[in-house]
């Protein structure tokens, strides 16, 4: 099996991938339908209302970060996912029923957005950490990248199908279809061979919520990663607002909006597959991807036609998934297993929790000054994130002058991480901590002592 798809050698991962792909298609259909309903049916093209809807969905992961991370570390993740996926199925059915009955209002939709956010707050860290339970440690980064490919592959299909369904038979059926796709994920979770799951260290009863925060606080590289992810997540990844308002500006209907989301996903899948080919996640790729995202956003903001704008979205999708997949893989593969759930919960809270701050601002800018100006807000955030990453790269000592060539710079592959105390020793620490090499004279003395004893 090729290096790109090496995680498929595990039965559990193959089952998970198929179930997740089908479920993600439904999730993207529902996300598209919610945005379109709020923008065109519950309001008169009010982008600010869309921003509030997104904020309500993404606020709970930030507010509940400590609890959700500890739950993911302490309890059986497969059983936890069975519960959260079932709840998401029921919420989708309820939204569809209210739309069919003509009883849906903007405040009620706000309530459902908040409920979806609360369930997702528990679902996301458990789902992200569970991927590492499905494959061997050496394939964890590849599994994360393929997971992103699944997510963004669904993004190519889901929004386009949702747009066609909305135009043809109405938005209510989109939510019904989403509920059906959740059955695939539930079936996958039931089919997984629990005895083949990778053994993991569960958090002890004495573990504290603050342990995850303390761990990240001792890792400058993770602090920088989270800062960059926060800026992009808050101001750059508000694609439902940007794509829908740009579709309206170009005179398109729901199918035009769905097509833009699918075109964005073409680049996203390409970025995820290239990430899957890399042997491990590197921070330099995250920093470069951030700069690429800022450039792509600036170019897309000035496109004069629908199709030219659509083409630039492929580059936007490629760059944002390159950086996000790299960030996710880096956090997962360099974090101590005992704390992985809590650290991932913090990471997801920063990624998704930035939306309650950024989405209303971006929505307001789109409503007052137009969607092109809102796109430029995301571009500025990307360049600020790039500046943070590049500054840290210089400060950390990884980037330095070449020892032999005067005008050439060298970037070190790794830098020692000495953050976990000896009693919390793990394979991740062993893989990132250098072994001290003794000078030759000290080695001779040790050998002499050994022979004498």
TrEMBL record:
Membrane-spanning segments: 15-38, 58-75, 87-110, 160-192, 222-244, 256-276, 283-303, 309-331, 343-367, 373-395
Protein name: Enterobactin exporter EntS
An annotated Gene Ontology molecular function: transmembrane transporter activity
Main location: membrane
Species of origin: Microbacterium trichothecenolyticum
Top-level taxonomy: Bacteria, Bacillati, Actinomycetota, Actinomycetes, Micrococcales
Pfam family, one: MFS_3
Keyword annotations of the record: Cell membrane, Membrane, Transmembrane, Transmembrane helix, Transport
Gene: entS_1
Keyword match Transmembrane: yes
Membrane topology term: Multi-pass membrane protein
PANTHER family recorded: INTEGRAL MEMBRANE EFFLUX PROTEIN-RELATED (PTHR23513), STAPHYLOFERRIN A TRANSPORTER (PTHR23513:SF11)
């Amino acid at each position: 099996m090729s290096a790109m798809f090496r995680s498929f050698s595990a039965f559990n991962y193959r089952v998970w991938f198929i179930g997740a792909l089908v479920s993600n298609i439904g999730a993207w259909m529902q996300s598209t339908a919610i945005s379109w309903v709020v923008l065109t049916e519950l309001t008169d093209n009010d982008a600010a209302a869309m921003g509030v809807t997104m904020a309500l969905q993404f606020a709970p992961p930030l507010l509940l970060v400590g609890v959700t991370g500890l739950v993911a570390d302490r309890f059986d993740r497969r059983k936890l996912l069975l519960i959260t996926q079932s709840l998401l199925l029921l919420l989708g059915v309820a939204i569809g029923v209210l739309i069919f009955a003509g009883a849906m209002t903007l405040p009620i939709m706000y309530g459902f957005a908040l409920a979806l956010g609360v369930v997702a707050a528990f679902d996301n860290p458990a789902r992200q950490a569970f991927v590492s339970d499905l494959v061997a440690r050496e394939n964890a980064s590849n599994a994360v990248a393929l997971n992103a490919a699944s997510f963004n592959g669904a993004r190519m299909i889901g929004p386009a199908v949702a747009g066609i369904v909305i135009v043809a038979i109405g938005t209510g059926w989109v939510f019904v279809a989403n509920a059906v796709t959740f059955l695939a994920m539930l079936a996958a979770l039931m089919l997984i061979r629990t005895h083949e799951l990778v053994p993991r260290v569960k958090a002890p009863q004495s573990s504290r919520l603050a342990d995850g925060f303390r761990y990240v606080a001792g890792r400058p590289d993770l602090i920088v990663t989270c800062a960059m992810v926060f800026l992009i997540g808050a101001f750059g990844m508000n694609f439902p607002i940007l794509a829908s308002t740009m579709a309206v500006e170009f005179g398109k209907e729901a199918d035009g909006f769905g097509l833009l989301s699918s075109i964005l996903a073409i680049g996203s899948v390409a970025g995820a597959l290239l990430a899957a080919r890399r042997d491990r996640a590197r921070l330099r790729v995250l920093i470069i991807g951030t700069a690429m995202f800022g450039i792509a956003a600036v170019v897309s903001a000035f496109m004069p036609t629908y199709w030219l704008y659509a083409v630039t979205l492929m580059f936007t999708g490629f760059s944002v998934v390159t950086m996000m997949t790299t960030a996710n893989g880096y956090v997962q593969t360099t974090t101590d297993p005992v704390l992985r759930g809590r650290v991932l919960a913090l990471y997801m809270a920063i990624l998704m929790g930035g939306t309650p701050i950024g989405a209303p601002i971006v929505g307001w800018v789109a409503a007052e000054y137009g969607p092109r100006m809102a796109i430029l807000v995301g571009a500025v955030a990307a360049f600020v994130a790039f500046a943070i990453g590049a500054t840290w790269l210089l400060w950390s000592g990884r980037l330095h002058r070449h020892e032999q060539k005067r005008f050439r710079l060298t970037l070190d592959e790794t830098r020692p991480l000495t953050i976990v105390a000896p009693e919390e020793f793990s394979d991740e620490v062993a893989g990132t901590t250098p072994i001290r090499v003794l000078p030759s004279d000290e080695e001779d003395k040790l050998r002499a002592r050994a022979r004498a004893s």
